Amino acid sequence: LNGYSPGRFIAEIDEAIDNAPMYGLLDADCPPRLRKLANKAVDDCLDFPLDFTRLRRLLSDKQDLEGELAGFWSGMPHKELHGGSKSLVTFTPEMFDTMDEIKVAARHNVTVLLIGETGSGKTFLARLIHELSDRREDRFCTVSCGALPPDLIESELFGYVKGAFTGAEKDREGKFAAAGSGTLLLDEIDVLSPDQQAKLLRVIETGEYEPVGSNTTQLSKARLVVACNYNLEELVRLGSFRTDLYYRLNILNFRLLPLRQRPWDIEYLARKFTLEHSRTHNIPLRSIEPAFLETLRQYHWPGNIREMENVIRRAVLYCHRGILTVNDLPSSIRASVGAGNRQEGAAHLHNMHASASHPTHEDLGTLSLPTGMLARLRPSPLMPSTRALPGGPAHLAAPAYAPHPSTSSALDNGNSATAVLTTTNRLLASSLEARVHVLEQRIIEDSLKRNNFRRKETAAELGISRVTLYNKMKKFGIL
Q1: Is residue 201 within 8 Å of residue 250, measured between CB atoms?
Q2: 62-117, pLDDT tens digit by residue?
Q3: Residue 262: left if φ>0, alpha if ψ -120 to 50, beta else—which one?
Q4: What total of structural domains would you count in the chain?
């Protein structure tokens, strides 16, 4: 190489050809260090003697990202919704009926309730409903209730008049007025106080409201779409959400599946976002490595579609070879998927051990339960069964197979299977609740430490509002 190191040689060639495909031809006796470098630096490597079939396939593969997306689209059953500039496509059969129902709901002037995790596409769907409705020519406004301090939500929704409070130097219209005859999306509606819920109920029933500090009644003509991250039925049961408001909101409701439950949508969205961001940033990309897509499918996506789009944007910006590879993904995602695979392997070995060491149905006499249930009722041979969770229920410190006191009489009366199943369900439910409680607290504490206890940065990192973060800190005693 006339004084060039292999790395420098490849780098200069890469710069000269401006992201064109690069392939390496290696001798059989190529040093391992150079082979490793070549595999990282070029799109693909071929060995001598040459495999001409593989070479022809590599050289004739001219399918670009748009062609790959079109091929994926046409080869899979899917549903589409198009409204104005918005389009919703899903390859998840469980969402096909929902898509048809959304199209019908958009045509009728009724309140729509959207339920889904953070980042699952509630705002996008609300805008699509607006575009599919007769109100598409009017405004679409949004209010993220969770992002506002509780004492400012009312003035944001209904507006205020001059002198209503300190700093109110002139009248200001609220979002109900700003939306006109269009659509108003209220996100994170579950954070509203009881008083705010009562005023919202009045608007829904009569269309009437008063700006803060005013006695003049105004009339809203906007259509309302509300969204929340949680099951409102549970909030009603706990007494933190009005029953009458819930029934007025629950005329038409749609639950958005989290991204981790939509594997085919993951691949479609990955291709779609890659194409969009490669065009936006003028970065020539030709293809996506299969391992890249497989890693995306295995990741759990706590931030759902919003997180995925940001990950794809980052991968496109970091891609230098024209093909997205696993190495273009954040190390946190690669580590998470790798750890998950290792845990699955360990769980498989544990289950094999448990199956070999646990008694059969006959050994337990008349107690006929599935083997998997028996495994959960016995202390694990790999983990102490008496370890209590911090802050968890006291009975979690008892052995996992110990019957709850309330079931002892049932056991004595011969209702063994029913009693043990009831006990097991109770233990599993409370155990899950305690574990989630501890895990959520730990995640929040770690994020606060990373951000030097700055709530704005912490909330952004966790994908929640500052108000939600404040409430959780108060709940866990972190304040």
Answers
A1: no
A2: 456 666 666 666 667 888 888 877 789 999 998 999 999 999 999 999 999 999 99
A3: beta
A4: 4
- The type of residue at 100 is D
Strands (E) located in 41-190: 44-47, 79-83, 86-90, 112-115, 140-144, 159-160, 172-173, 183-187
| Domain termination residue (choose one: 320, 335, 350) | 335
Residues 6+ apart with CB under 8 A from 478: 441, 444, 445, 448
Closest CA to 185 of 148, 225, 128, 146: 225
pTM beyond 0.85, yes or no: no
DSSP β-ladder status, 287-288 and 44-47:
unpaired
Question: CB of 196 within 8 A of CB of 176?
Answer: no
Same domain, 273 and 320: yes
- How many angstroms separate the CA atoms of 64 and 322, rounded? 10
Of the pLDDT bands very low, low, confident and very high (cuts 50, 70, 90), residue 420 is: very low
Last residue within a domain, chosen from 300, 335, 370 = 335
pLDDT tens for 266-276 read: 999 999 999 89
| CATH code for the domain in which residue 433 is found | 1.10.10.60
What type of residue sits at position 57?
Answer: R
Residues 6+ apart with CB under 8 A from 246: 232, 233, 236
Are residue 322 and residue 267 in the same domain, yes or no?
Answer: yes
249-297 pLDDT, tens digit per residue, is 999 999 999 999 998 899 999 999 998 998 888 888 888 988 999 999 9
In this structure, is residue 383 part of a structural domain? no
